[in-house]
Amino acid sequence: MACCGSFNDSTQLCCNNVIQSKEYGSRCCGSETIDTTKGCCGTKAYNLSTHQCCKDSTIIPEHHSCCGYHGYDNRTQLCTDNYKVINRSSRNNGSLSKRQRVSRSICNTCHWRHRRSYREIKSGNQYVCKRHTYNITINKTTRRDIVWILDAKYENKDKMKSNVTIIVPCKSGKLNKTGRFLLVTDSTIDEETLRLGDSDLLLQYHRKLDVLVNRKQRNCRQVSVVLAEIQKAVKRFIRKLIRPK
To answer: pLDDT digit string (tens) for 33-42?
Structure first.
């Protein structure tokens, strides 16, 4: 590897241009190395048994859940569809706007049969406007404390099957399943490990469900384009109003 110049890659690792000793199972995290008991959040190490990482950016306690780049306590708070953290009382008093609808958590949707998933998504009760939909095959499941670790395969950008370890913030036994699933998420699989958030979806695969999710997401993107054009037009109009004559 050129980043560190000359070094022995069988006994050493190059971490951000710093040479570190290579131990069994070790990997780089920033300029340091970590073992299998730790995760890497951006360039910061954290203990997998006590903390978790949101979108490779923010380290939060393991008993919290991710809401976009931030953490929240799902015992007293909720994550809305536009990634705002609100108190549960806001939902009960009916003060949520349409944009602040609360999706069911991954723990509640993972056990749905495809017919129910199709019905909930088609009616608009379940929000699927996420950046990515991955067709994955789960081969092995392992429960560790309050998370499930799923060993899966997915199709990458080159149409090749790649391995990924998916960490799900849920202790429900309903996640102890293998087979084909649709993973609907804002996170990009660009490493060997992907940690999901509470608002991600893991749905039992069915061809009709796959088609429906993709159609809904195309509509989401079209709406986003229209809104962006409206915002540009408004800005142009304001600039004309305030432009000195």
So the answer is: 888 778 888 8
For 143-187, what is each residue's pLDDT tens digit? 887 778 899 999 766 677 889 999 887 777 777 889 999 998 878
Q: What is the pTM of this model?
A: 0.54
Is residue 227 classed as helix, strand or coil in its secondary structure? Answer: helix
- Cβ(77)–Cβ(88) below 8 Å: yes
Strand duo 161-168 + 147-155: pairing = antiparallel
Q: Where are the alpha helices (DSSP H) in 52-200?
A: 88-92, 106-109, 114-123
Q: Classify residue 29 by its DSSP letter.
A: E
Neighbouring residues of 207: CB distance < 8 A, sequence distance ≥ 6: none
Helical (H) or strand (E) element with 59 = strand 58-61
| DSSP character string of 128-166 | ---SEEEEEEEEEEEEETTEEEEEEEEE-TTS-EEEEEE
How far out from the chain centre does Cα 111 lie? 18
Contact 137, 98 (CB under 8 A): no
**In residues, how long is the chain?**
245
Q: Which amino acid is at 162?
A: S
The two three-digit tokens of residue 48, written as one number? 């997998």
Q: Which of 186, 151, 192 is nearest to 168 (CA)?
A: 151
Cα–Cα distance for residue pair 119/209, rounded to 1 Å: 9
CA distance 90 to 81: 14
Q: Distances in Å between the alpha carbon of 66 and those of 39, 54, 77?
A: 16, 6, 11
